[in-house]
């Protein structure tokens, strides 16, 4: 039997709602909130309960309904490439402060294009260096936004 | 009111106003044309740009992007049968057959005329309806607002695709839950921050919008490659002109579809998609004999109806945004977030406190429609060439613009990590066929929902009787209940039937 996408989705939301609820019940009641009807935790608690009810309903529905066949999964290449792009985004966030905008972005764009299968040197150059420089000029010179040079160099 | 209109007109017709609307329409058309990227992504990508300019111009720019994106979606529907936006799916039914017959030019011209007429007529309706509604909504209490927001949120779930109702509810709830992260504005209590100082201010709406739309749409394209290459747009455009008989034939269709589209656009949750499908179905039912047979084979009526209706609906969706401060669609929700970021309070007082912004947006709609007609139409063959732009480059550039757009607002790399997290989450949710638009709507409305609930409870001395004490609140509450119960009953009744797994879930 195939597990339908609906069932996985409903189950994930049930787990999330439970976790949300556990934290909602831990929101401290501040002294100023004593005796008032709606505190900081009131609505989160209600949301958690509604979330649990809705996901249980969806879960029950997915069991009663005839399961639909899951659509063909995406290939390993596509999955690997997506995962690498996500890793690259994390690396970009890591590089941005130490390397500075110009260098970090240049590296990000080049690595991204290579990951996506673009190897022609001319294209790699024209789609990265001018983009970074023009963007940097617009930000710093036209819009007056200060982009700090990397902490490595200063 | 006249004074406000003139202020708006002068802003919209100033050289900056015209420049921004032109830029918006062009960028919007470009992004809207790319299959997979919709108006929400287009607008989200523009938000960081608008932060540095005057709010009225910022709104003008975003409104331009909105119509541009819908128009761009029509172009790719007609030329390559790949609607970039769900709202233009109905356009491809007759638009693509026309293009196959070598009449792409005529189809695009008709789409532009229909969009222009629908958008302009709806802008006239908006000009009349918005001030009236704003006046009425001045008498609204917190209780009414709370009930209205609940209605807006239930409506978006109720209007979602068949079999998607509970998923839309879950996504709305997820959005509302995410909105509770950070310091509670009323009491000062920390909620769901897990001791991180980066989360004290909550999660910014721009970050959520960029991650779940721009980032995840771009990554979805990598994850689920189309397999087949999109057919190259035909280089032969054909004649752009329409004959007198053809104009006579479609004129009444445009009139009817404008009114229908505008009215549907006003309804929270129903957007351009529902309007375009309904207009198409209505015209097909109204047509007789030979005309009816042409539908699906390249009927001009079949093209004009959805094109008019989706543009009219886009304009209509501004009514609740500008007058009540309650967005009816994912796209207007993103605009609401931008308005709040400007420090403006959308709602009935917007017309009174910031007439420049209010009227500038309405007036810019006329300018935007003219720009689409006279600037975009002649440029279509050239813009269409960009469809051939290498996808690898485009994907990486979209990732870069999304990340840097958020970074340039906060200058905090923590936000980038959070974006990656949200992108992964929404990729998973998309794979599981969850719609994304309800999430952003819930996220934007979550904060307002809570503050209005608290105020209403305080006024009512802690009793939830406020929901039915005043006739107005009672009416809204009953409508919300009906919106919730009808699809729920439908869901319970349909348990025995196999579930349809809808593809186009983000119908906004």
From TrEMBL, chain A:
Keywords: Membrane, Transmembrane, Transmembrane helix. The chain crosses the membrane at residues 7-26, 46-64, 76-93, 99-116, 123-148. InterPro entries: DUF1468. Residues 8-147 form the DUF1468 domain. It comes from the Bacteria. This is Tricarboxylic transport membrane protein. It comes from Alloalcanivorax balearicus MACL04.
TrEMBL record, chain B:
The keyword Plastid does not apply. The chain crosses the membrane at residues 20-47, 59-80, 110-133, 140-159, 165-183, 259-282, 321-345, 357-380, 392-410, 416-449, 470-489. The keyword Transmembrane helix applies. Keywords: Membrane, Transmembrane, Transmembrane helix. InterPro entries: DUF112_TM. It comes from the Bacteria. Residues 18-441 form the DUF112 domain. PANTHER family: TRICARBOXYLIC TRANSPORT PROTEIN. This is DUF112 domain-containing protein.
């Amino acid at each position: 039997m195939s597990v339908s996408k609906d069932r996985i989705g409903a189950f994930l939301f049930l787990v999330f709602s439970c976790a949300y609820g556990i934290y909602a019940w831990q929101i401290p009641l501040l002294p100023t909130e004593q005796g008032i009807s709606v505190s900081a935790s009131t609505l989160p608690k209600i949301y958690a309960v509604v979330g649990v009810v809705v996901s249980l309903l969806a879960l029950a529905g997915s069991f009663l309904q005839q399961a639909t066949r899951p659509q063909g999964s995406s290939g390993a290449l596509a999955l690997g490439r997506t995962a690498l792009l996500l890793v690259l985004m994390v690396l970009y966030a890591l590089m941005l402060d130490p390397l500075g905008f110009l260098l970090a972005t240049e590296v990000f764009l080049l690595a991204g294009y290579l990951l996506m299968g673009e190897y022609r040197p001319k294209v790699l150059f024209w789609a990265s260096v001018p983009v970074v420089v023009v963007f940097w000029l617009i930000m710093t010179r036209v819009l007056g936004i200060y982009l700090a040079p990397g902490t490595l160099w200063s | 009111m006249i004074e406000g209109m003139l202020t708006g007109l002068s802003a919209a017709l100033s050289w900056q106003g015209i420049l921004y609307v032109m830029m918006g329409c062009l960028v919007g058309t470009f992004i809207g044309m790319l299959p997979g990227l919709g108006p929400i992504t287009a607008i989200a990508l523009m938000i960081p740009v608008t932060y540095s300019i005057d709010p009225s111009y910022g709104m003008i720019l975003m409104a331009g992007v909105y119509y541009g994106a819908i128009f761009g979606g029509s172009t790719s529907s007609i030329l390559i049968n790949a609607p970039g936006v769900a709202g233009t799916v109905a356009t491809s039914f007759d638009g693509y057959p026309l293009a196959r017959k070598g009449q792409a030019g005529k189809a695009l011209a008709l789409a532009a005329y229909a969009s222009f007429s629908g958008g302009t007529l709806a802008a006239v309706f908006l000009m009349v309806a918005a001030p009236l509604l704003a006046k009425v909504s001045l008498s609204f209490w917190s209780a009414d607002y709370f009930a209205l927001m609940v209605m807006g949120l239930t409506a978006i779930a109720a209007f979602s695709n068949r079999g998607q109702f509970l998923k839309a509810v879950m996504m709305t709830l997820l959005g509302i839950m995410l909105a509770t992260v950070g310091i509670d504005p009323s009491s000062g209590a920390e909620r769901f921050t897990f001791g991180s100082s980066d989360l004290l201010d909550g999660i910014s709406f721009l970050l959520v919008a960029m991650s779940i739309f721009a980032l995840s749409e771009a990554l979805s394209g990598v994850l689920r490659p189309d397999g087949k290459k999109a057919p190259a747009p035909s280089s032969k455009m054909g004649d752009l002109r329409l004959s007198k008989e053809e104009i006579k034939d479609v004129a009444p269709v445009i009139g009817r579809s404008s009114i229908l589209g505008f009215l549907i656009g006003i309804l929270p949750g129903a957007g351009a998609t529902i309007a375009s499908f309904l207009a198409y179905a209505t015209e097909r039912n109204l047509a007789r004999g030979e005309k009816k047979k042409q539908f699906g084979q390249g009927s001009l009526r079949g093209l004009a109806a959805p094109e008019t209706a989706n543009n009219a609906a886009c304009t209509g969706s501004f009514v609740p945004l500008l007058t009540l401060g309650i967005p009816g669609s994912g796209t207007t929700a993103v605009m609401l977030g931008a308005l709040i970021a400007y420090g403006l309070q959308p709602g009935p007082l917007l017309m009174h406190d910031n007439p420049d912004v209010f009227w500038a947006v309405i007036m810019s709609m006329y300018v935007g429609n003219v720009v689409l007609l006279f600037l975009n139409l002649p440029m279509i063959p050239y813009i269409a060439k960009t469809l051939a732009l290498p996808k690898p480059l485009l994907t990486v550039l979209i990732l870069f613009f999304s990340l840097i757009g958020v970074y340039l607002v906060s200058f905090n790399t923590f936000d980038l990590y959070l974006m990656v997290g949200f992108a992964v989450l929404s990729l998973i949710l998309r794979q599981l066929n969850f719609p994304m638009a309800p999430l952003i709507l819930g996220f934007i409305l979550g904060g307002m929902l809570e503050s209005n609930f608290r105020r209403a409870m305080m006024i009512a001395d802690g009793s939830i009787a406020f929901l039915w004490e005043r006739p107005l609140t009672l009416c809204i509450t009953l409508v919300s209940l009906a919106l919730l119960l009808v699809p729920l009953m439908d869901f319970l009744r349909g348990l025995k039937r196999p579930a349809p797994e809808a593809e186009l879930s983000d119908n906004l």
